């Protein structure tokens, strides 16, 4: 971006007028450009280097009827034509490596108007101040993708009526490059309004910031909350965040100003994932994460220092070894002494003998504190947030851990809340929900000396200080789907689901597969709702399904699903809860209306998973913290199940049959037909399972599976 390209234009204009007045280039001697021939003038040095466009036209009124033509030539070869008849001058410049630049200027005593076009970007400005809004100007300036994105994100009214704003507007070419880098199509980006809004608001700054106001090293705060860093080169070129260059500045609008840029600026929470470096050092640390860390550039030095392990030799006859897994060394064994930031293993060796005695001083474990970050919905959501909290509290009470919970109200809270835990020096950070996966992974890579547990998060070859807790939601859904089919009288059942992320998809497909296992002809209805906190929308969906004949409704989507089953239960329809036994949460232990219609809940023992992993870190030898992998909870280890009927009337033979199906799932004799990672159906045709003789014969009624933490 050039600071004062118009100064040169004014000088050129004055020169043209002087030449015209002196007759230096007028009359028949003036150089004319035929219409069928391209002008030979080249762009000024400013236009060629920075993309600025400048031409000048001048008008001069005369009392005679004769037409005078005046041409002015710049050092670079600009040509201008002036006519008295129309009182205007046109200068056209073409042929800058395929880039077309057209400008017109009318200079009169009443006003001045300039139009400049570069690569399809048109800026309109008048001295009389008749500019349109930022959105209007963007539309007129051919920011096609930007305008579509603003409309999709619902920001049109904000950028039209509010302000003043400064908008750093990416060109269409910039958006194309960004979509390729993100691996998205334009349709996918426009459909993801959350990501779209996050990106767009990162390009908007409150107040009008002109080019002349910018300073090298300056930071400006965006509406998104992140900051943009400005860099100005010696030639005046302005770069933002070292990635985007301003190619056209100070495009005026009635409620602000637009600066066109050649790259899309990614907010820190999106850009940070791409700026990751991996620094790997294997450390033989007992009961500590191995020092394999992928760290961001800002945290590289700190992470590497934390990962270094010093080893001091001891005089032993037996060969010393360091294992990655916690071990207890007895009698005459291996002796090692290793120091890390949080190392708690001390080895004692005698110098006189040919043998070494080594013991672990910290038999009680390696952690003393844990911090939990919830997904949106809060810790009292009655489902997975609350279950994770319960597991942490139980471990805290049994092992004397200091515990803290930080609630998130929106996705923008995830990263700051994790950082709050880190700032508090907690030994373990527990994050709850699939949507926190990226922020959790980034924090784990940047902080190898802190343990991380990611609930509902899949970890593929992750750092050694991170474990993802995964559940076979498809198995839990299969169980309650079978029960729904067994009690349905209409032959139609339905599900109200939250955002279509893998855990929810597994619940839905498992539910429908279980129902078809019992009744291949059953009709299954369902809808995904793009929020976990929309109980009213869940209720609306349930009402619609009831109208379509559904007599059993499954709710799997946090408060959204709970809103659906609450409405249906109050209408006298049988319902099924999710995650934990919603009889005690959503239906107040039987006190809330409709509790008698809750026939069961698809239980995933999040509390068990959190408790078990914290127990392993606190010193229990019953469980293991296997970093970089997933801790799977399924029917085989009582990690999933279904809740009792409580006040609802469910025949004993139905409960018995569902328990039989549970045993078949646990033994591996029965498969759900659902991918345990993505939730997709393994059989494109539907993957219907045929009821086995063992599953259809109702054994003696037994209690529903209700495992307890640590069992």
Keywords summarizing the entry:
711 residues, globular, seven-stranded mixed beta sheet, alpha/beta
> What composes the largest sheet?
7 strands, mixed
Q: Structural class, please?
A: alpha/beta
Strand arrangement in the largest pleated sheet: 7-6-12-11-10-9-8
Q: Give the radius of gyration.
A: 35 Å
Number of strand elements:
28
The best one-word shape is: globular
Helicity, in percent?
Answer: 25-40%
Poorly predicted runs are 24-129, 272-364, 690-711
> How many DSSP helices?
20
Strand content: 15-25%
State the assembly state of the protein chains. Answer: single chain
The N- and C-terminal alpha carbons lie at a distance of: 67 Å
Average predicted confidence as pLDDT: 73
Describe what you observe in this structure:
Strands 7-6-12-11-10-9-8 form a 7-stranded mixed sheet. Helix 17 links the parallel strand 24 (552-556) and strand 25 (574-579). The chain contains 20 helices and 28 strands. The protein is an alpha/beta fold and 711 residues long. The two termini are 67 Å apart. Residues 24-129, 272-364 and 690-711 have low confidence and may be disordered. The protein is 30% helix and 22% strand.
């Amino acid at each position: 971006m050039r600071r004062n390209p118009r100064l040169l234009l004014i000088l050129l204009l004055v020169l043209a007028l002087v030449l015209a007045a002196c007759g230096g280039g007028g009359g028949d001697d003036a150089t004319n450009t035929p219409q069928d021939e391209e002008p030979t003038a080249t762009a000024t040095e400013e236009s060629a280097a920075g993309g600025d466009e400048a031409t000048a036209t001048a008008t001069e009124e005369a009392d005679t009827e004769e037409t005078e033509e005046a041409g002015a030539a710049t050092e670079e070869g600009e040509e201008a034509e002036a006519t008295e008849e129309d009182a205007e001058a046109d200068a056209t410049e073409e042929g800058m490596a395929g880039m077309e630049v057209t400008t017109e200027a009318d200079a009169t005593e009443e006003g001045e108007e300039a139009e400049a076009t570069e690569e399809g970007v048109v800026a309109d400005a008048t001295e009389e101040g008749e500019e349109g809004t930022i959105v209007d100007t963007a539309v007129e300036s051919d920011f096609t993708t930007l305008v579509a994105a603003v409309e999709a994100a619902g920001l049109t009214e904000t950028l039209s009526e509010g302000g003043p704003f400064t908008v750093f507007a990416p060109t269409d070419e910039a958006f194309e490059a960004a979509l390729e880098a993100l691996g998205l199509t334009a349709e996918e980006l426009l459909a993801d309004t959350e990501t779209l809004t996050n990106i767009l608001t990162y390009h908007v700054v409150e107040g009008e910031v002109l080019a002349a106001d910018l300073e090298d090293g300056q930071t400006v705060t965006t509406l998104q909350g992140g900051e943009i860093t400005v860099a100005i080169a010696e030639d005046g070129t302005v770069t933002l965040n070292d990635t985007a260059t301003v190619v056209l500045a100070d495009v005026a609008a009635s409620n602000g100003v637009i600066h066109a840029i050649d790259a899309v600026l990614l907010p820190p929470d999106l850009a940070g994932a791409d700026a990751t470096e991996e620094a790997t050092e294997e450390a033989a640390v007992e009961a500590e994460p191995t020092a394999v860390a992928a760290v961001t550039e800002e945290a590289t030095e700190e992470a590497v220092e934390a990962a270094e392990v010093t080893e001091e030799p001891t005089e032993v006859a037996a060969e010393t070894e360091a294992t990655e897994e916690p071990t207890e060394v007895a009698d005459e064994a291996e002796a090692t002494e290793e120091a890390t930031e949080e190392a708690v293993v001390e080895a004692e060796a005698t110098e006189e003998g040919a043998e070494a005695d080594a013991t672990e001083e910290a038999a009680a474990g390696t952690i003393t504190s844990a911090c939990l970050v919830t997904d949106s919905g809060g810790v009292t959501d009655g489902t997975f947030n609350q279950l994770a909290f319960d597991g942490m509290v139980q471990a805290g009470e049994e092992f004397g851990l200091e515990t803290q919970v930080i609630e998130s109200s929106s996705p923008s809270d995830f990263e700051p809340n994790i950082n709050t835990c880190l700032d508090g020096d907690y030994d373990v950070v527990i994050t709850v929900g699939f949507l926190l996966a990226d922020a959790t992974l980034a924090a784990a890579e940047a902080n190898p000396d802190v343990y991380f547990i990611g609930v509902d998060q899949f970890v593929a070859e992750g750092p050694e200080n991170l474990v993802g807790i995964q559940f076979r939601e498809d198995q839990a859904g299969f169980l309650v789907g079978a029960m729904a089919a067994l009690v349905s009288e209409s032959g139609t059942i339905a599900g109200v689901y939250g955002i279509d992320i893998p855990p929810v998809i597994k619940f839905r497909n498992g539910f429908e597969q279980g129902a078809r296992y019992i009744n291949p002809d059953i009709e299954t209805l369902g809808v995904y709702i793009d929020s976990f906190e929309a109980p009213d929308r869940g209720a609306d969906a349930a009402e619609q399904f009831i109208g379509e004949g559904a007599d059993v409704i499954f709710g799997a989507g946090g408060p959204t699903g709970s809103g659906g089953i609450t409405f249906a239960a109050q209408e006298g329809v049988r319902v099924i809860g999710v995650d934990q036994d919603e009889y005690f949460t959503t239906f107040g232990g039987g006190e809330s209306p409709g509790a008698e219609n809750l026939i069961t809940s698809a239980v995933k023992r999040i509390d068990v998973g959190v408790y078990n992993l914290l127990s392993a870190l606190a010193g229990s030898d019953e469980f293991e913290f296997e970093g970089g992998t997933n801790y799977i909870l399924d029917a085989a280890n009582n990690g999933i199940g279904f809740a009792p009927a409580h006040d609802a009337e469910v025949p004993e033979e139905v409960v018995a049959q569902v328990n039989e199906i549970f045993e078949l799932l646990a033994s591996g004799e029965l498969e759900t037909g659902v991918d345990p990672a993505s939730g997709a159906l393994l059989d494109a045709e539907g993957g219907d399972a045929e009821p086995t003789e063992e599953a259809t014969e109702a054994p003696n009624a037994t209690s529903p599976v209700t495992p307890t933490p640590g069992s």
